[in-house]
Amino acid sequence: MTGANNQGMCTFSNPAGSCPWGSLTQPLANVSFTASKNITLTGNRFTGLGGAGLGVMYGAANTLIQGNEFTDIASTAILLGCTYDPLPTNPSDAAGIKRNCTPNGANETAAIGTNEILTGTTVADNVIHHIGTDYSSASGITLLFSQHTTITRNNLYDLPYTGITAGVIQGHVNQASTPQNTTNINSSNTISDNILHDYLSVRSDGGAVYVEGHQARYVYEADGTTIDPVRTLAKGLQVTGNIAYNGPTTNFTYYNDAGSEWINWQRNVAFRAGDKAHGGCSPTGHFWITGNYFSAGIQSYPCAQPVDTHASGNTTIPATPGPTDLPHALLRAAGTGSGSFTPVLSVPARIFYVSPTANATEVLVAGEGFGPATPVYIGTTPVAGVTHLSSGFMIVPIPPGTSAGQISVTPQVPGSIRLNDDDGAITYSGFAYADGRSYGDHRNDVHYATSNGSTASLTFTGTRVTVHGEQNTDQGNIGISVDGGPQQVVSTLPSDGVRHANVAVYTSGPLSPGRHTIVVTKLSGQYSTLDGFTV
Hints:
The protein has three helices and 48 strands.
């Protein structure tokens, strides 16, 4: 934030919105286009970068960003548009556009107006993960002022904050009570069929898809003053077919924030993704919420009620849905490669979610990098009959007695079973759950404790056991006891002062065949972290 430090919530003067407000600083992008036409970027990797990865700013038209990978980037992966309104209520704000958004900066002499609106951008089939490494308030994709933008079939995960943000402006200028403080720039934009998971690992007050401000150019009826709702919604933001999961600290998975209006939320999915699947703070309204599959509630507006909402045909699903809880057609349509485009890049196959295995003959497996030939193993045994739905979802048949920890995309060490920290066989006292951390945890989650004396215990049948955790400077000692024997003290401080995730912090000696119980106790340090066991 630069300038005023009050998020723009100062007293508005005449014209509205012209008082000194805080400006969202325009981050520099490593590859940047302004006033370009008909640019295609495909098959590229953006990695190890400061600032934003790719910027497509004002005046650009018909840009195609397809089949790329964005990872290890300090700020947002893709920045579309500029933080300054291209049709400012106060003409003096045009200086901000010239300074931040045009090729020649302050030397730009062209008039500021509709020529500066971003149009016709398509962002499709990209993989975006582990971004916001320095600026943790960065979203995966940042969509500012634009028209005819399509963001579709992308996979976004391992994110510190929101997945896709749309319509953010200089502070929360528009509210339910003041919807007209800015002009309507956005029109005919679509966010569809994306897979978003393991987000909000660092920040809070965000969602999988976060929307703010005007999202439609109004279409009026014959009298010239009454808004035509059908034709205006057709020009509004279409948020359809997206699948969001593993965002446990989410406020609203699909988030209508300050002054947002004219949004069609249709056939989206949310599970393991916070207390509310849909809602927001002080939106203007005109929302249609239809045909969605949500494990949490909808239409939660704690700050101010919107003008109108229309909800129908939504289905409540379990927080841990299985293979029959979601339409397979919806799962097949989402994520990279689900359309006619075949990506030339790929990421390693990795599992992030397995539905409950108890009494199940098949499970829903969610993750990344799945292809038609991706193998699945139960322990060391390859699984036949796997249904590969998309790059993010599979249906896996399992025999009786299978645990989630046995299911993997690589064969496990012969004779061993890896139990993730969320396995039902583990009993906790004083530990809490953390998901979507993006540090390299097994299945991207851990259990952690802050109070000394907190315990995690596992009763198992086997001849050896390994404890997996984390080494970091904010940790200390843990105590390990097997079958009630003397407690062995183990340090989880790293010798090099650097965080190491998914580390084998303890392995027992040979045990007699049969049942055993291991207890892990936090002894010192700010945190103690458990990432599961291998038996």
